[in-house]
Amino acid sequence: MFGLLTHAELERRLQEHGEKLELEWTEWYDKFRRLYARIAKRQQQIEDAEAAGVSADSPPGLVRDRVSARTPNQAGYADRLAAARRRFGG
User: Along the 90 residues of the chain, how does pLDDT read in single tens digits?
Assistant: First the structure.
């Protein structure tokens, strides 16, 4: 259970644990960075909507006079889907 470790074995284990820890922290940093970017993007959308005179609580598709990332075909599908959801209580 408590066997003796050579200096080389101890260094190898510490190196492995250090690499695992570095990988874990890198993953968490990436998650945090993506989350922060999403929050910043949403905040910018709210500020843009308020500047355009639309309530911040309004759905994003409500602003029709600004350039949309959707194609006209996608916007049509989204409008029909929203109408169906309202009709069926979804």
Answer: 467 889 999 999 999 999 999 999 999 999 999 999 999 999 999 888 888 876 555 555 555 445 567 788 888 888 898 999 888 876
3 state DSSP class of 71: coil
Residue among 65, 61, 60 at smallest CA distance from 45: 60
Between CA 62 and CA 75 the distance in angstroms is: 11
H helix count then E strand count, the chain: 2, 0
Backbone torsion region of residue 58, taken as left when φ is above 0, otherwise alpha when ψ lies between -120 and 50, otherwise beta: beta
Cβ neighbours for 70, distance < 8 A, ≥ 6 positions apart: 78
